[in-house]
C-alpha cells in the first residue's frame, strides 16, 4: 500500500490477522482489495480479523471493500471480523452493510 502499510500474521489457532496502519485512501484501494481477496479466496482461514485500531481515515472505496469482504467471506466460509474500529468508522461500516456482530471492540 502507498499511504498506509499493512501487517499480516497468523495466530496459533489459525486466525489470519490483517492490520492496516494509517489512513486508507483511494491510493490503497487496489492493494487492500487484493490482500483481502487473496486471504479469503485462496488462503481460506476459518477466521479473518481486520484490526482497524491503527486506521485513521477510511475513504468510501475502502469502506465498501471492507463491507464486501464480509460478504465474500460468507460465500467462502471464512468468518470475517473487523476489530477496534473508531465509533464513527463502525457507524459507517454498519451503514455500508456490515452486520453488527462482525464489529468487535469498538474504540
Describe the structure.
- This protein is an alpha/beta fold.
- The protein has three helices and six strands.
- Strands 1, 2, 3, 4, 5 and 6 form a six-stranded mixed sheet that branches.
- α1 runs parallel beside α2 (60-75).
- The model has no long low-confidence stretch (mean pLDDT 93).
Secondary structure layout plus pairing:
Blueprint: E1 5-10, E2 16-24, H1 29-43, E3 47-51, E4 55-58, H2 60-75, E5 79-83, H3 87-95, E6 103-104
Parallel strand pairs: 2-3, 2-4, 3-5, 5-6
Antiparallel strand pairs: 1-2
**Main sheet?**
6 strands, mixed
N/C terminus separation: 24 Å
Structure classification: alpha/beta
Strand content: 25-35%
Spell out the helices and strands N to C: EEHEEHEHE
Q: List unreliable stretches of 5+ residues.
A: none
Summarize the structure in short.
With 107 residues, this protein is an alpha/beta fold. It has helices at 29-43, 60-75, 87-95; strands at residues 5-10, 16-24, 47-51, 55-58, 79-83, 103-104.
List keywords for this structure.
6 strands, six-stranded mixed sheet, alpha/beta, 107 residues
